[in-house]
Amino acid sequence: MNIPSSTPLRFSPTAEWLEADGLGGFASGTVSGIRTRRYHALLLTATTPPTGRYVLVNGFDAWVETPAGSFSLSSQRYVPDVVHSDGARRLEAFEPDPWPRWCFRLEDGTCIEQELFVCHGVSVVVLTWRLVDAREDATLWVRPFFSGRDYHALHHENSAFRFEAEVRAERLRWRPYPDVPGVAALTNGEYHHQPDWYRRFQYAEERARGLDDTEDLGTPGLLRFSLSSPRRHARRTTTGEAILILAAEGPDHRVLPSTTSASKHLRTLRTAERQRRQRFPSRLHRAADAYIVRRGAGKTIVAGYPWFTDWGRDTFITLRGLCLATNRFDEARDILIAWAGAVSEGMLPNLFSDHGDTAEFNAVDASLWYIIAVHDFLQAMSAKERKVTPQDRQTLQQAIEAILSGYAAGTRYHIRCDTDGLLAAGQAGVQLTWMDAKVGDWVVTPRIGKPVEVQALWLNALKIASGFAPRWQAFFTRGFAAFQERFWNETGGYLHDVVDVDHQAGTVDPTLRPNQIFAVGGLPFPLVTGDRARRIVEAVETRLLTPLGLRSLAPGEEGYAAHYEGGVRDRDGAYHQGTVWPWLIGSFVEAWVRVRGDTRDAKREARARFLDPLLRHLDEAGLGHVSEITDAEEPHTPRGCPFQAWSMGELLRLSLIVLADK
After folding, report:
1. b/e per residue, 457-477, with b = 16+ CB within 10 A?
2. Same domain, 105 and 125
3. pLDDT mean by block of 10 residues, the chain; 662 residues
4. Quick check: pTM over 0.90?
5. DSSP assigned state of 268
6. Final residue belonging to a domain, choices 244, 260, 278
7. Structural domains in the chain (count)
8. Are both 254 and 292 inside the same structural domain?
9. Residues 314 and 194 in one domain
């Protein structure tokens, strides 16, 4: 959909907005209002937070009738790539803060403002419309679209879908499927039951990703609202605001008040949510809040929206920025304590299933990142003069001991401390490092042997543990010496990516990848300093650095992919073969300022060169957030998940810790 050039839109019509509920559910969409993903939804709830996600209300059509005619406020894309109706062309302005707000200018001069926000801690979304100008009265019609499906799936016309609505004054209730949460509504609109199917919605982003892209949605009826211009009566001012509050029903169905009017409840919700958001010191702090959600009685971190839940590796990497840089120490403590009890044979789970608690232990580095997160948490608590209880300290240290003991003795997937003190890992058919793309039986970057960033994490973990358990010092000393001897590539002027490839002693993989940066920056203790460190940073800067992060493979290397596009196999094949990862920028910049003496001048230059492009990106794709990946080559088109936790976390860590004046 092309917006007329005369329309002063600040954001691209395809840019995406996100409203998260703190439970793992959310609402999301595009500036234009055209849904381009199966995940774009008006009401998406997590039945077992943060998993068990269902799309309940996908979207809506809306139009306004005035004496001059009928004017659409919405647009949908249908097969075959047809946009109807023309509401997006009337979009005059959009603002994402403090929540999404659209302004539509109709042909007769009428201006309609539409707002949407999600309430924190409950599966409730609030939609309102009002006349901005003092013009003639208007009638608003809204037709909601329902599915009731798993958020990864697509919905199609079927005879089991139930259109029936329970109507009691301002309260409505629908339950399309008996085994899916129902939808409750509180509204000052007039409901008209007109059940129908709207067929063949088409999602452009799904199509571009080589996935199924078409679905059918059920619509039970219409809501009619009378919009009146602001006018003063004898005792009050009325604005004629149209209100639609939607909620995913909980076990007891009491998700909305039984007696309060829609207008009164709106005032309560709007005031509470505005005050909550105003307490965040900055836009970055507010964005960080979207990823910290409930799991059981505790908290966890969602790896990204719209399709990720909580992952072990992502949680521990992200926690340092989302929680520690923003002084959210209580949440950091709760997350670390909760994960402390999940150590199994030295490993922490990297993933829980979307439906249930089945854990996958397919990460060699997740447990090591946990130790880094614990160290940084304890250091931050000490710096802020906050106490850690002896019981908590003991719990965290016991988890560290369990991890290192399991790795030292040997555990799953041939993970073991080798005789040289380095950590070996990997077996055919399993992806263990963060470069974990796998298509069927094809592991794209297996990196079996001794990957460089795994050694940096392992040696940092040993150094940390030796502070309270001296026996780990000998492990560190032996491994550190082997690292210095075995990883340096003098010809290239940087570090090998893997040594003892496929567990073959003495073999090396000299491929230039960004993983080596963790030997210089990003972790508490650098393993390489001096001239070698400077040469590493120079090599990474020259061949891997882009405005939004580091390439995962240098141009010219075998298998390099300039663009992340095509079907699943094509995209996963390019995922770590050149594709840019913004989360790596934090460790690179930390290395960059370290080799320049960590001076104020170096930090000032780093902010201008490396931080400012990331800050500009906040207005380009997932509004207020940082993308998961971008193409390796210009214009570095954002790809993947538009709202990525570790990208956001590293931006916060970079801004508030690494480049902060001390």
Report:
1. bbbbbbbbbbeeeeebeebbe
2. yes
3. 54 97 97 98 96 97 95 98 96 97 95 97 96 82 98 98 96 96 96 98 96 97 86 48 95 75 96 98 96 91 96 96 97 96 94 68 96 98 95 98 98 97 96 94 95 98 98 98 97 97 97 98 98 98 98 97 94 96 98 97 97 96 98 96 98 97 76
4. yes
5. H
6. 278
7. 2
8. no
9. no
